[in-house]
Write a structure and sequence with these properties.
heterodimer; A: mainly alpha; two-stranded antiparallel sheet; 5 helices; disordered C terminus; B: 239 residues; mainly alpha; two-stranded antiparallel ribbon; 3 strands; elongated
């Protein structure tokens, strides 16, 4: 009995391993691609696996609105300027609501019966104080 | 549900006719809390507001300043105009509600108490006001410090795109959101006492838990799985 040719055997084994790894890698890539696309995939034993349910359009849109668009890198001078302007305008707006009597005037139209407190400087009795 | 709709319909319909409005519905009462100083000599920074209402404007200023620092120096995200409008509109809406509850006597954090010797009123600050101030300062500091720590980490070469888990982020994954929720609740607590503060904190917190955090988790998950996928492919190539 001749001893087995170790060189030939190891070459065959390494070829098989390389082929298996290569095919395994390809199938892994395919699986990743099909999962991303939400398609059905066929397993090696021939059975068709259920496709992973994908998000609805509304969910995708909501996610894109908040997570996607806002996380894009890059300059956006218009949006940045708008953000700074509106935040500063908000401070002035809140001050104006109080100091320029905007909110009290609006409150007087609401059915809550809000009137000026007698202690207020806007009340006739107090405003006549020296 | 039906009485509510009926109430709203009649109320809105009666807005052009205040007399009908007052005569028809029992008023819940209340008044506008005095908010301007009668003595022009006692103004602070030239703004003739009471200390409480000046503090309210101060909270709006501090929160705006923090967000402007964030957009100019910290954030690496693109800010589309629509997103800027949404974020600023949301903040202005909540601030305006806070201003309203701070001016209405039944919800305000202060009440006029007595006249002082000069003939002007004094305000009695309620317990929720210092509590709201503390919550606001703590929340704003947590949000700002955590974001600065993350910015410092990501600005180092080699850390680009890597998730940051140090500093305050070691305590919680979304500690900056926690900070935002905290200062929002503090602002509302200052304006409208504990009930309004708790409600605002609950609404903002629920929004984060149900919308913002899952959205960001999905973003991180996709990013990490893509990186892991690349690592696996490279490892197999090496094998």
């Amino acid at each position: 009995m001749n001893p087995p040719d170790i060189g030939v055997a190891s070459k065959a084994v390494s070829d098989n391993v390389a082929e298996a790894v290569s095919s395994g890698m390809d199938s892994a890539k395919d699986a990743l691609t099909s999962r991303k696309k939400g398609q059905s995939e066929t397993s090696p034993n021939g059975t068709t696996e259920q496709a992973i349910p994908t998000d609805t359009d509304a969910q995708k849109k909501a996610a894109a609105d908040w997570a996607g668009a806002s996380r894009e890198k890059g300059p956006s001078p218009v949006g940045t300027f708008l953000f700074v302007f509106l935040r500063l305008a908000d401070v002035w707006f809140q001050y104006a609501l109080i100091a320029h009597e905007v909110m009290p005037t609006l409150m007087s139209y609401l059915p809550i019966g809000a009137t000026y407190h007698p202690f207020s400087c806007h009340h006739p009795r107090v405003s006549t104080l020296p | 549900m039906r009485p509510t709709i009926l109430f709203l319909a009649i109320t809105l319909g009666s807005l052009p006719c205040p007399k009908f409005n007052i005569d028809t519905f029992p008023s819940p009462g209340g008044y506008v809390v005095p908010h301007r100083l009668a003595d022009p000599r006692s103004t602070t920074l030239g703004l003739s507001l009471t200390d409480y209402h000046l503090g309210l404007v101060g909270l709006a200023f501090a929160s705006a300043l923090k967000q402007i620092i964030w957009i100019l120096f910290i954030s690496e995200q693109k800010m589309p105009p629509q997103f800027a409008l949404t974020v600023c509109g949301f903040n202005t809406f909540l601030n305006t509600l806070n201003t309203f509850v701070a001016l209405y006597s039944r919800t305000s954090g202060v009440l006029p108490q007595t006249f002082d010797f000069g003939g002007y009123y004094k305000q009695a600050v309620q317990y929720a006001v210092p509590m709201g101030q503390s919550l606001f300062c703590a929340g704003l500091a947590i949000e700002l410090i955590s974001e600065v720590q993350r910015k410092v980490f990501k600005s180092r070469p080699g850390n680009k795109g890597k998730p940051f888990g140090g500093g305050l982020f070691r305590k919680a994954t979304n500690i900056n959101y926690g900070g935002y929720t905290l200062w929002r609740a503090g602002y509302a607590c200052y304006a409208g006492k504990l009930g309004w503060g708790g409600l605002t904190g609950m609404l903002v917190g629920t929004d984060f838990v149900r919308r913002a955090i899952p959205s960001m988790d999905k973003y991180c998950e996709d990013k990490v799985s893509a990186e892991i996928g690349e690592d696996i492919v490279q490892m197999l190539m090496r094998v």
